[in-house]
Amino acid sequence: MTKKIILLIAVSAMVFGVQMAPAAERLEIEGSTTVGPIADAFAEAFKQMQPDVDITVKKTGSGDGSAALIDGRCSIASMSRFMKPKEFKDAVDKGIMPVAHVIAMDGVCVVVHPSNPVSALTSGQIKDVYMGKITNWKELGGADMPIVAITRDTSSGTYETFHELVMKKEKMAGAVETVSSNVPAQNRVKTTPGAIAYVGLGFLDGVKALKVDGVAPTKRSIAAGTYPVARPLYLFTNGYPKLGSLVHQFCTFYLSEAGQEIIEEKGFVPLTNY
Questions:
Q1: Contact 251/76 with Cβ under 8 angstroms?
Q2: Which of 53, 171, 197, 216 lies 20 to 30 angstroms, CA to CA, from 148?
Q3: Superfamily for domain range 107-224
């Protein structure tokens, strides 16, 4: 965490209205591996402002976060997609009323090895790769090299976004490899010249992001809505949190300058910086 963010955290505690929580107050956050870096950094910031609070962050996927909120196993579900109708129904059936808090914008970036000469694909070409219709990079203007397609597991919000916006809800080929989160997808592409995967905007280190339908995944294009595979990032709570509570402070921290700086530092797009 940079010195600037540390200073802004101190200012936020005084100016933004962060109140001291009761001793030993707990906050459990569970869900998206994409939102995870933001949640981790927010937790670190809150521990600096309020050393007595106990904040845990679990990063197992958006679907797991939704299930944890519904089952009462977490205070906040971090999700890189909106809750599904069935999840809402299951929640209401258990007396839970999910409320969404949009904290940032993200792009699902299609990435390849840095040595790959291909720099742009259409969404149709990407879909054909994942359906097994295109299997060699030479068919896309690249080298004569087999394509190794990497996807996320179905509990992932990143998978849900890609499945809806790129795959148009059509099934992927059986040969497509599945990984559990952004980091394994990123690492697989880093070490495999023929690989292609999709990751959140904050996971582009060491890989090359492709233009999709002629638009590069940048903070500007995602904020403007011109990048075709963009999505909001959410925190979900059971009802609107009590004003001044730790849950309320955490879910509104993105409005502070420190929160904005953290979101940018993690590679995402602040809502307040449009």
A1: yes
A2: 216
A3: Periplasmic binding protein-like II (3.40.190.10)
Domain 3-105+231-273 has CATH 2.60.40.10: no
Which is more confidently placed, 98 or 155?
Answer: 98
* pLDDT tens for each residue of 28-66: 999 999 999 999 999 999 998 888 899 999 999 999 999
Tell me where in the chain the CATH 3.40.190.10 domain(s) lie: 3-105+231-273, 107-224
Give the type of residue at 118. Answer: V
How far is residue 46's CA from residue 26's CA, in Å, rounded to a whole number?
12
pTM over 0.85: no
The three-class DSSP label of residue 209 is strand
The pLDDT mean for the chain works out to 91
Whole-angstrom distance, CA of residue 9 vs CA of residue 3: 10
Tell me which amino acid residue 245 is: S
233 vs 69: CA distance, rounded Å: 16
